[in-house]
């Protein structure tokens, strides 16, 4: 058996283990981890998790609080909205100077700008 065949078998196995479809979306994300604020951009999102790109590496196991910004026109409602999520980092890797972090979404709620203003 050649190495290319082994690699493709491993890749297929990894895909089958995923329990949710991933959607390739590039959206701004505000991340808070260990009382520090980070700017990030989503690479893909599923019902269970998110993969985002950022400048710094977050360690697996780190609890994160993040806000995914939904631009006007990306959803049925024309207003700008956001998804406020709580989760934890499960995997990180780096490509060049770009850090990537995969997080499980443990809890989320939708909010829009009007709701945020009303709550303050």
Question: What helical percentage do the residues reach?
Answer: 10-25%
Number of discrete helical segments: 2
Instruction: Provide mean pLDDT, rounded.
Output: 79
- What series of H and E elements makes up the topology? HEEEEEEH
What fraction of the residues are assigned to beta strands by DSSP? over 45%
**Uncertain stretches of 5 or more adjacent residues:** 1-17, 115-120
Please report the first level of CATH classification, the CATH class. Answer: Mainly Beta
Indicate the CATH architecture. Beta Barrel
Largest sheet entry:
6 strands, antiparallel, barrel
End-to-end Cα distance: 63 Å
- CATH topology description: Thrombin, subunit H
Backbone shape: globular
What assembly state would you assign to the polypeptide chains in this entry?
A: single chain
Any idea what the radius of gyration is? Answer: 16 Å
Strand segment tally = 6
Number of domains: 1
Strand order of the largest sheet: 1-2-3-6-5-4
Can you identify the CATH superfamily?
predicted glycosyltransferase like domains
Describe the protein's architecture and organization.
The chain has 120 residues and is an alpha+beta fold. The protein has one domain (22-119): Thrombin, subunit H (Beta Barrel), CATH 2.40.10. 18% of the residues lie in helices and 50% in strands. The chain has two helices and six strands; from the N terminus they run H-E-E-E-E-E-E-H. The chain has helices at 3-17, 113-119; strands at residues 28-33, 36-45, 49-54, 63-70, 81-95, 98-112. It has a six-stranded antiparallel beta barrel. Strand 5 (81-95) and strand 6 (98-112) form a beta hairpin. It is globular and about 35 Å long.
């Amino acid at each position: 058996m050649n190495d290319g065949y082994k690699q493709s078998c491993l890749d297929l196995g990894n895909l089958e283990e995923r329990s949710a479809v991933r959607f390739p979306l590039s959206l701004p994300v505000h991340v808070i981890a260990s009382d520090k604020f980070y700017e990030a951009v989503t690479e893909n999102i599923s019902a269970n998790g998110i993969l985002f790109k950022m400048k710094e590496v977050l360690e697996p196991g780190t609890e994160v609080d993040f806000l995914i910004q939904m631009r006007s026109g990306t959803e049925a409602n024309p207003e700008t909205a956001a998804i406020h999520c709580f989760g934890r980092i499960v995997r990180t890797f780096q490509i060049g100077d770009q850090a990537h972090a995969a997080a499980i979404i443990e809890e989320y709620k939708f909010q829009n700008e009007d709701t945020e203003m009303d709550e303050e």
